[in-house]
Every structure is written in structure tokens, then in C-alpha cells.
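thought: user wants a sequence for this fold. calling inverse folding tool.
action: design(structure=
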């Protein structure tokens, strides 16, 4: 018992009451399992919502960066660049136009948008950037989570100067309009 006098007070109380080498009882293990299960069930919806927001946000960022890269490459190469929005494929994709004139506009043939649904109101799925970076396309693109409803982000592209702005989309597709894209991203 000399070795017990050197232990902190809470360990001395524990060692006297149960013995220092004794294990857990079945009731204690069951209680811990129930508490961990309750905590996990409370945290799971929050985790799923966070993952859905991250997926939708990553889809928007991928879309925006791919379009900006095509725009920069059009300026850098001094030629027109075209990409296509393939929202009907699974997963939705941004595809480099098949015409060989547009080679070099994107480093990849296609860029998938994982775990999201994609909607747009462009008259054509082709997005064109001139050698000056201008675009004749005016429209709105909406990226939404496929796992949790109500998580939507948007990208509005202006025509002529090719500027883009992003935000939270407050209406439910299939209605796609720039007026429903609120700044806050």
C-alpha cells in the first residue's frame, strides 16, 4: 500500500473502491455505448448538412474556376474558347467544346461537378469567350446539393464583358433567374 500513497487523490479513491486493475462492468460499458449512440444520432444531421453545403460550394467553385480559366486562356492564346454545360449527365460536367479550334482552352477534356445537381437558363449549353475575354452569354447557373434539399448556390454571368458573380440562390429550380441570386458567398 506504500505505492498507493504516491497516487493523486482521485486515483487513490478509485483504487480503494474498485481495485486498480479491475475492468469495466457490463452495465458501465452499456451505458457508455448508449451515450455515444445518442451523441452520434444528434450530430449526424448536422454533419450531413455540413457535407451537403461543402459539396454544393465545391461544385460552385469548380464551375466558377473552370469558366474563369477558359476566359483567361482565351485572352492568353488570343483566340475564342468555348465550353459546354452538360447538366443532364450524371454527374453534371463542364466539357471542352469538341471542335479542335478550341484545344488548349481547358487543361482537361471535361470537369465533373460531383454530388450536385446543375441548372441554367442559357439558351444554349455553349459558353463562348472571345479573344478579349468577352462573352455573348447572359445567364444564371444554379448548383444545388443532391443530398439535402434547399442548399443552392448560383453564378450569374454577364454578357459583353464576361463578368461573373456568385451568391445564394433563394428560389427553387427549375426557375432560374439572376434576380433570385443574392450576394452572400
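)
observation: tool returned 185 residues.
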Amino acid at each position: 500500500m506504500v505505492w498507493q500513497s504516491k497516487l493523486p487523490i482521485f486515483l487513490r479513491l478509485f483504487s480503494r473502491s474498485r481495485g486498480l486493475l479491475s475492468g469495466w462492468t457490463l452495465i458501465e460499458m452499456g451505458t457508455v455505448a448508449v451515450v455515444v449512440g445518442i451523441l452520434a444520432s444528434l450530430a449526424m444531421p448536422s454533419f450531413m448538412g455540413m457535407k451537403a453545403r461543402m459539396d454544393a460550394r465545391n461544385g460552385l467553385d469548380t464551375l466558377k474556376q473552370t469558366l474563369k480559366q477558359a476566359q483567361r486562356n482565351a485572352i492568353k492564346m488570343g483566340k475564342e474558347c468555348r465550353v459546354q454545360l452538360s447538366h443532364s449527365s450524371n454527374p453534371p460536367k463542364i466539357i471542352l467544346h469538341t471542335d479542335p479550334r478550341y484545344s488548349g482552352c481547358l487543361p482537361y477534356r471535361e470537369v465533373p461537378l460531383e454530388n450536385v445537381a446543375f441548372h441554367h437558363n442559357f439558351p444554349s449549353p455553349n459558353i463562348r469567350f472571345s479573344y478579349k475575354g468577352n462573352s455573348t452569354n447572359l445567364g444564371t447557373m444554379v448548383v444545388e446539393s443532391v443530398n439535402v434539399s434547399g442548399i443552392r448556390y448560383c453564378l450569374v454571368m454577364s454578357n459583353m464583358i464576361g463578368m461573373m458573380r456568385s451568391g445564394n440562390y433563394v428560389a427553387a429550380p427549375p426557375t432560374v433567374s439572376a434576380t433570385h441570386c443574392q450576394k452572400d458567398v
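thought: summarizing for user.
answer: Here is the designed sequence. The chain has two helices and nine strands.
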